Amino acid sequence: MHAIDIGHVTLERDGARIFPDLTLRLTERRIGVVGRNGAGKSSLIRLITGLVAPQRGQVRVNGIEVAKDRTGALATVGLLFQNPDHQIIFPVVRDEIAFGLEQKGLKRAEALRRAEAVLAAQGRSDWADRLCHTLSQGQRQLVCLMSILAMEPDWILFDEPFNSLDLPTALAIEARIAALAQHVVLVTHDPARLTGFDRILWLEAGRIEADGPPAEVLPRYIAAMEALARDAAC
């Protein structure tokens, strides 16, 4: 069973409590996360990927305690950051894609072979020797996504992947996300990106304000944000 299990998690950072007692079970193929800045969206996906560890409680993805089993986490869940420059380590595309595979224990030659196979599958074999900094932001995001796909995780998480992209690039990234076979958790400020999803979480100040299908949660969320906008304009 593919599942994210968050059990009675308390998360504090810099003396502030982000989640006081969060319990969730996520099994759907397409899950959207909305909420205002500071609501805990990015903290949630960092918990799920094991990049931050809770003070109390457990986070398991497909049975793996991600904060403690980093090798298991790498093989199970991947995260595409909002800014690809915060994710890319190596100057050359092929090496960037191969890096995670080497972290999983593959010999370098096999990691490079698999990296080239991923590039070919995405129709980007000509990028193998390209320098990452010469690519556009959307292209660098695709490099990051290919690095994740090379690891063959069951879950891929996206933290505001459409920020700072022009419309054609954003639509291309959206289409790639829709075509993924993996389970997806997508954090976004744009509710329109989530209308075809299976489940929506609305976070508010570290708690679940609403949890359900898009047709139920998104209209409530939009109405609440519009009310806040009206109040701010007064």
TrEMBL record:
<dbReference type="InterPro" id="IPR050095">
    <property type="entry name" value="ECF_ABC_transporter_ATP-bd"/>
</dbReference>
<dbReference type="InterPro" id="IPR027417">
    <property type="entry name" value="P-loop_NTPase"/>
</dbReference>
<dbReference type="InterPro" id="IPR015856">
    <property type="entry name" value="ABC_transpr_CbiO/EcfA_su"/>
</dbReference>
<dbReference type="Pfam" id="PF00005">
    <property type="entry name" value="ABC_tran"/>
</dbReference>
<keyword id="KW-0813">Transport</keyword>
<keyword id="KW-0067">ATP-binding</keyword>
<keyword id="KW-0547">Nucleotide-binding</keyword>
<feature type="domain" description="ABC transporter">
    <location>
        <begin position="1"/>
        <end position="230"/>
    </location>
</feature>
<dbReference type="GO" id="GO:0016887">
    <property type="term" value="F:ATP hydrolysis activity"/>
</dbReference>
<dbReference type="GO" id="GO:0042626">
    <property type="term" value="F:ATPase-coupled transmembrane transporter activity"/>
</dbReference>
<comment type="similarity">
    <text>Belongs to the ABC transporter superfamily.</text>
</comment>
<dbReference type="InterPro" id="IPR003439">
    <property type="entry name" value="ABC_transporter-like_ATP-bd"/>
</dbReference>
<dbReference type="GO" id="GO:0005524">
    <property type="term" value="F:ATP binding"/>
</dbReference>
<dbReference type="InterPro" id="IPR003593">
    <property type="entry name" value="AAA+_ATPase"/>
</dbReference>
<dbReference type="GO" id="GO:0043190">
    <property type="term" value="C:ATP-binding cassette (ABC) transporter complex"/>
</dbReference>
<protein>
    <submittedName>
        <fullName>Biotin transport system ATP-binding protein</fullName>
    </submittedName>
</protein>
